[in-house]
Amino acid sequence: MFDLDKWQEILGTIKKNKLRTLLTGFSVAWGIFMLMVLLGAGNGLSNGVSSNFEGNARNAIWIWSRETSMPYQGYKVGRAIQFTMDDYDAIKKMENIDKISARYWIGDRIYSFGNEYGTYNTQSCHPDYLGIENLIISQGRFLNDIDLEHERKVMVIGEDIRKALFKDTDPIGQFIKVGSVPFKIIGVYTEKDPREGTRQGLIPISTAQRLFNAGNRIHNLALTTTDISKSESEKIEKNIKNDIARRHKFDPEDERAIGLYNSLKDYVQTMNIFSAINMFVWLIGIGTLIAGIVGVSNIMLIVVKERTKEIGIRKALGATPGSIIGLILLESILITAAAGYIGMFLGISLMEGINFAMEAQTQTQVGASGDQGEIRMFMNPTVDLRIAISAMLLLVAAGAFAGYMPAKRAASIRPIEALHDE
Fold first, then answer.
1. Sign (positive/negative) of CA torsion 11, 13, 14, 18?
2. Is residue 67 a contact partner of residue 78, using CB atoms and an 8 Å limit?
3. Cα gap 22→102, rounded to integer Å
């Protein structure tokens, strides 16, 4: 039941000691304010670095050919390694391979449609390339197995090409010339990460090998794994390298014979770093909060000392230990909750303001230059509201605990001792 007299008494005590209450509240508010700022900054760093992985699958592996740097079985140093479709077929059969695509680069070609033309990059791939690169089909469809089987002259173009060459015309079903070769447009793609750019045309790899006299050759391979651990991914790396080394006759220990990049390793390592940073942030934030709570406890001890005689009179008039404890606890919780809410509100507001300013600046820069290609190391430095509320509840509970010991001491004072206190 709401006891108005008790609350009036608590508020009266707070008003009577404004400076002391203000300084105590400030220490609590500063603690949770700093926790919100540190959490927001940690999230901003984590979000910024994570965004750099959005353009591709996080469990992707890229393999490309280079030159040998070690002699092997009579072969000299400096021999160029040339991948073929046999490498694609062998790796595709390996365990824990989810998607895989061979790629053959055609390079820059002049694209023309009607009176519009421009120079764009052309490459060929398999249908699985859609999932490996996390492409989004905005119109039409992507390449499929039938396109590969029949070596169809079809193409999926990037959004930048569509805007430049087709304007307001629907590109699906239209024919575009790549050099002098016509290709039918079957789809338009965009990227999840706009920094990747969409100035590329994609055609079936079988078509490219026939039209551009590539034979069985490919330039590189891209694949994704199933849901496996970092150590299992590293094992796949080793198996791939050993298999390619056996087939192309070079030393498996030759680091320069082929290039291999495993995005899962980088992603796991990066996220581990940010997990450690988040732990450090929490330690600092909680330490700051504890300092504030200790301040509340010390102030409540002073309050009990100052009101010893008053507490003795209350007990002499029949006040129970529970009512004395409740009075001290309520004052402690009120100071902690009010100051904590102010600190939380200011901390969240600051991070939201920084996020708003950063987004506005990004939009202005993109609108002015159209360039979205820069790497962002800091973005969306906001605080999860659930975490903020949890921290607030933890703070109130700590405030209650901080006030409990002084309250228990007050309740244990004998009336005769309290009345003799000077």
1. positive
2. yes
3. 68
